[in-house]
Amino acid sequence: MALKHRQNKLQKQRIIVFVASPIEDTSQNLVRLAKKMKKNNISVDIINFGEESHNTSKLEAFIEAIGQETSHLVTIPPGSYLLSDMLLSGPILMGEDGAPPPGLSAGMGGDTSGFEFGIDPSLDPELALALRMSLEEETARQQAEAQRAAREAEGSNLATVPEESEKKDGEGEGEGGTDNMEIDR
Questions:
Q1: Do strands 42-48 and 72-75 pair parallel, antiparallel, or not at all (unpaired)?
Q2: Distance of alpha carbon 131 from the chain centroid
Q3: pLDDT digits (tens, 9 = 90+) for 4-57
Q4: 80 domain residue, yes or no
Q5: In this structure, what are the phi and psi dihedrals at residue 13, rounded to the nearest 5 degrees?
Q6: Counted domains in the chain
Q7: Cys-Cys with 37: which of 27, 42, 151, 158 at CB 3.0–4.6 Å?
Q8: 75, 99, 123 — which closes off a domain?
Q9: pTM of the full structure
Q10: Domain span at residue 162?
Q11: Burial, 33: exposed, middle or buried (Cβ in 10 Å; 0-12, 13-18, 19+)?
Q12: Stretch 121-133: mean pLDDT, rounded?
């Protein structure tokens, strides 16, 4: 009823089901339910974890009956996988064009319209502004540090340069370098 009486009729009807305990219904009942969902143009995405060995065959029959082009089944085997990682890399969160929804692409290694911090700036503009300002301040600090280091290195080179120029002037005087300059004038 909630899907039928939704405010925005242009949005697709979609249900996401998390299955973590054994399904006691028969495959035939699930297929019958899937056909009703398909008739009403409702997509169903199922995340199967926990009792995956017991439920997989029933859920595969359900997805096959409802249509695999709009509905998806993600079975997460027991082990070291994180549920969030499996969902991010699975087809449920992907859009119809195969792209992740706005705000999730950075976490998946994608591009969020050139924003390099892993969030969508349209979802949280204050956070985006704070991160951008922090990056600019850090960049300015690093540039100032590099300039200071360059001046210190240049200052130490200047300290050694006069000694070398004094030696050259002293060498020039011994050879009559000062006398030659007065003659040229």
A1: parallel
A2: 15
A3: 777 777 778 888 888 888 888 898 999 999 998 888 888 888 888 877 778 888
A4: yes
A5: -85, 125
A6: 2
A7: 42
A8: 99
A9: 0.50
A10: 131-184
A11: middle
A12: 80
Cα→Cα distances 160→39, 169, 184, Å: 87, 15, 30
Strands (E) in the chain, as ranges, are: 13-19, 42-48, 72-75
How confident is the model at residue 181, as a pLDDT?
Answer: 52
Helix (H, G, I), strand (E, B) or coil at 136: helix
Whether residues 95 and 137 fall in one domain: no
> pLDDT digit string (tens) for 45-92?
888 887 777 888 888 999 889 887 778 888 887 776 677 777 777 777
Which position has the token pair 């359900």? 62
The residue type of 43 is: S
Residue 59, Cβ density class (10 Å: 0-12 exposed, 13-18 middle, ≥19 buried): buried
Nearest to 68 by CA among 44, 100, 104, 98: 44
Q: Which amino acid is at 141?
A: R
Structure tokens at 114: 């050139």
Q: Is the per-residue pLDDT at 113 higher than 60?
A: no
